[in-house]
Design a protein that fits this description.
Shape: globular
Number of helices: 16
Number of strands: 19
Largest sheet: 7 strands, mixed
Helix content: 40-55%
């Protein structure tokens, strides 16, 4: 076969093609290696930043001492951001499959760096020279200038944290491999916590100086709810105590027992649409003001009841014995004038049950409650408090809907609105439907200490193409009272049959507030009883009543048809005496399963 010769120009062009392809391959290998190395280094920096975080927590008592750890974390997060933002990395973000993983990593690194440099460092720099202990009282006084100094940087930091949270939330999980998607989800949860905590600090730094009397004395009212006798927001109001704040100095007035206040023939305030659900009871008796699921109305009722007892107040604070037990982790045990000792471990049990077993006289019980409030207040204001434990206690109490705050001054209330402390009713969002699941005692006693509520949410029809989708709410109430409760327990606990309920039986009157616009597909109670109810705004309210003898268990089931855009459901539940039982129950509807239930 004759040899074939190519013209010189053709041979040159061929060599050029080979060279170009070779260089392209080398570039791709280099780019891949470059990205892999930078990705590994970025991951290493973020891991190092994560390992440094506990150093900040360990120095929470002196934020300035945590400065070195914060600077080290900032160095790592800045390096991770730089490593994932060069032109090669950005170019690779357009590559199929690999690109979304790289983009998600880069966005996550940027968000973390923004939080550290725009949130943690500015707040720490202002706090240089004082620590968290500066926020607690000393000799009965809180230095309000600390909050004033933090107001502006904390507000700026809250905006940065919210922006970072939104950036992570906006990352599309659809093209991500499972490990990456899971990591982004975890980071999203963390960012949400950071944003929430920073927002709380910003609001507190603006709100507390005035509420603590920096611009003139303020008079507040402290309500203590009793979860052994359920009301929608937790329990009956057993007492109210005036608290005066003047230039940061706090003092307690004389406690007013609810049983000694006037019982009115009609509601002292207009209850609006809640009157159709609860009639006039929340406005007739001080004990019932927590029967409505809106703390603003509860506080306005409390203020009016106090005014009729010749006590004028500017604000209302509510707490329950479980939250009190959290505070005792910060103060340590306290001794009451009766000789009883309250600790974080026994406070809820003693104040909600033990006191009735120990003291059969109502005046003696009142002395215990009054002494408990005074002793814990004295411990908190004396200054011998673990600041980290105090912050944790207040945060947990707020998250669990055990701590509420209201101000009669609108400029203060605007700051509170939107926080858990404001105690607003559950409101739906664009992707979450929220139920209100509330319990009210119908026995006229303290039998709810022996009633356990289990609340579950579940989705059906979550698979792709399935319609309609439904949300199932299941509420199971179980009595753990002893079999001989009628004779073994004192009448103050059983009610003694005074309100038509046999001694030893616990009657629960429940209300379920459905998400706005949702319709009931089916509903049932194991007793065979029916439902009553009404409407509050655009929410349908289903009411029911259950009687439980010792050992009995009854279940309420309500199925509702879900809006097609809703992916999540929550139930806000009356906080009970059980600190381990979350008052918020969640469930998610995923397109590849039949629903996830969290009880």
């Amino acid at each position: 076969m004759p040899e074939t010769f190519l013209p010189p120009a053709a041979r040159t062009a061929g060599r050029i093609v080979v060279w170009v392809l070779g260089l392209a391959l080398l570039f791709l290998l280099f780019a891949f290696g470059w990205i892999a190395v930078r990705g590994y280094l970025a991951y290493d920096h973020l891991s190092s930043a994560q390992k440094q975080a506990p150093a900040i927590a360990s120095d929470i008592g002196d934020l300035s001492a945590a400065g070195e750890a914060i600077d080290e974390i900032a160095r790592h997060t800045a390096a991770a951001r730089e490593l994932t933002s060069d032109p090669l990395w950005q170019g690779a973000e357009g590559v199929a499959w690999l690109g979304p993983q790289l983009a998600a990593f880069a966005d996550a690194a940027a968000a973390v760096d923004d939080v550290v440099t725009g949130t943690v460092k500015p707040i720490a720099s202002v706090a240089d020279g004082f620590g968290v202990e500066a926020f607690i009282p000393v000799d009965g006084r809180i230095d309000t200038s600390v909050f004033a100094a933090l107001a502006e940087p904390a507000t700026d930091a809250a905006e940065v944290a919210a922006s970072s949270r939104n950036s992570v939330a906006a990352i599309d999980r659809t093209p991500l491999v499972t490990p990456v998607a899971s990591a982004i989800d975890q980071l999203g949860d963390l960012m949400a916590q950071v944003a929430s905590g920073t927002d709380t600090l910003a609001r507190a730094s603006r709100l507390l100086p005035s509420m603590l009397g920096s611009d003139g004395a303020r008079n507040h009212l402290l309500l203590v709810q009793n979860n052994a006798e359920w009301r929608t927001l937790g329990g009956i109001v057993g007492s109210m105590t005036p608290v005066r704040a003047d230039d940061g100095r706090l003092s307690l007035g004389d406690q007013i027992q609810a049983r000694s206040t006037t019982k009115y023939p009609d509601s002292i305030l207009d209850l609006g649409e809640y009157g159709s659900i609860y009639q006039a009871k929340p406005g007739r008796f001080l004990q019932n003001i927590t029967q409505v699921p809106d703390f603003r109305l509860t506080a306005e009722l409390a203020r009016e009841f106090a005014a009729r007892e010749d006590v004028a107040v500017d604000g209302v604070i509510s707490i329950d014995p479980v939250a009190l037990s959290y505070l005792l982790k910060a103060t340590g045990p306290v001794r009451l004038p009766t000789g009883d000792e309250l600790t974080s471990a026994n406070a809820a049990g003693f104040l909600l049950n033990g006191v009735y077993l120990t003291y059969d006289d109502a005046n003696a019980q009142d002395a215990v409650f009054s002494g408990a409030a005074a002793a814990v207040f004295a411990a908190l204001t004396a200054g011998d408090v673990d600041p980290g434990a105090l912050i944790t206690a207040l945060g947990r109490a707020g998250t669990e809907h055990r701590l509420y705050l209201w101000s009669a001054r609108e400029q203060d209330q605007v700051i509170l609105d939107g926080t858990t402390l404001a105690g607003a009713p559950p409101a739906d969002s664009s992707d979450t439907a929220r139920f209100g699941v509330y319990f009210n005692d119908g026995t006229g006693s303290k039998m709810d200490w022996y009633v356990t509520p289990d609340v579950e949410l579940a989705w059906t029809g979550c698979a792709a193409g399935s319609t309609p989708r439904t949300i199932s709410l299941t509420v199971t109430l179980t009595s753990t009272a002893p079999a001989d409760a009628a004779s073994a327990l004192p009448p103050y606990i059983t009610g003694g049959g005074a309100y038509g309920v046999p001694a030893g039986t616990a009657r629960t009157v429940g209300e379920v507030y459905l998400p706005e616009g949702f319709e009931v597909a089916s509903s049932a109670i194991t007793t065979g009883r029916g439902f009553s109810g009404g409407m509050v705004g655009d929410r349908q309210v289903l009411s029911y009543s259950i009687d439980l003898k010792p050992g009995d268990s009854q279940t309420v089931t309500i199925d509702v048809i879900a809006d097609t855009d809703i992916q999540n459901a929550e139930a806000w539940v009356t906080p009970t005496a059980d600190a381990d039982r979350s008052p918020i129950v969640r469930a998610t509807c995923a397109s590849n399963d039949t629903g996830v239930t969290l009880g």
